[in-house]
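Hello forum,

I keep getting stuck at the same step: I have a sequence, I want structure tokens, and every attempt I make locally crashes halfway through. Rather than fight my setup again tonight, could one of you with a working pipeline run this one for me? It's a single chain of 178 residues.
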Amino acid sequence: MSDRVQGGSGDRNPVSVASIEALYRHESDRLIRFFARRTRHEAEAQDLMHDAFLHLSRANIEGDPLPYLFRIARNLLISRTRRDARWRRLVSDAPIDEGRAFASPPEQSLNLEAEDVKRQYQSVIDRLPEKTRRIYLMHRLGGRTYIEIAQEMNLSVKAIEYHISSALKALVRGVDQA
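Reply #2:
Ran it on my machine without issues. Output:
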């Protein structure tokens, strides 16, 4: 059995299996990082790394295979970008029948659950003592800091912390009970 990978044509030499294995051991992590930085997906980066080594194993090259490996990697990224662009064009050009564009059952279920949780939160907020409710809403909805609320209501920051904490505890208890 030969230790050379066959393929390609011309007067160049095929890359030996041993040199590909050594290159894989030394460069696979680096190549995965290269792809991961550009794709932002670890699984896709690993797939691209394996594709790059597969292409290298089929190549007849002359000299050091490392520069050729990284040229293959860049070409794979270019091909991926072009494929993704074609796919986005296809999807964006597809007509949508708005009469049939209903939410799927899981989406409907999630929307109903979200509405239920909102109602539970509102119910708990409505039952809070007036001062606690006002402070909580000033902070959460108004985006005010504890210091701003304390100054406006002539209270200490510790008192504001107490009321916010009380409101949060009530919300947690109220939603857990429902």
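The two ends are 70 Å apart (CA to CA). If your local run keeps crashing, start a new thread with the error log.
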